Amino acid sequence: MTDFNNGLNHSLKNKLVRLQNSQTLNQVEIGPIRKPLSIEFYEKWLTNGFHGEMAYLAAHGMRRARPAELVKGTVSVITARMDYLPQSTSCATLDGWTAVEFNRLKNSSEGIVSVYARGRDYHKVLRSRLQKLADHIA
Fold first, then answer.
1. What are 55-65's pLDDT values in tens digits?
2. φ, ψ at 114 (rounded to 5°)
3. What is the tens place of the pLDDT at every residue in 80-94?
4. b/e sequence 97-112, b meaning 16+ C-beta within 10 Å
């Protein structure tokens, strides 16, 4: 858990640590608002229309990079990470898993579904877990 002096109370930090430790999410961090390093690239990416049919990306535009535009007075953000490698992955190590996936690419007669698209829709799983995070810190 990142520690910085921004006035957050210890109770909130402790709740976030407990939630992360419950393995609901793989990583939960608190941090100050900073300009993302890749913001210029993202702006060009949107301008060039590379978001395709994902209109919500353009609709929200730069608010993703400027949380205070979404909620006035925002001085810090809580970020969460969830791995989408299925728990049932049989490879003992990350290297073993990647080797299996790269070997599958050699079989041109086999269609391959990306790992994030296997199993339940990870957007729904993440949304549910983020709601649990919100419930815990409310």
1. 988 887 778 78
2. -55, 150
3. 888 776 666 666 566
4. beeeeeeeeeeeeeee
CA–CA distance, 124 with 116 (Å, rounded to integer): 12
Question: What pLDDT, on the 0 to 100 scale, is given for residue 48?
Answer: 94
C-alpha 51/C-alpha 58 separation (Å) is 7
Point out which residues pair with 30 in neighbouring strands. Answer: 78
Task: For residue 86, give the amino acid letter.
Answer: P
SS (H, E, C) the chain: CCCCCCCCCHHHHHHHHHHHHCCCCCEEEEEECCCCCCHHHHHHHHHCCCCCCCHHHHHHHHHHCCHHHHCCCCCEEEEEECCCCCCCCCCCCHHHHHHHHHHHCCCCCCCCCCHHHCCCCHHHHHHHHHHHHHHHHC
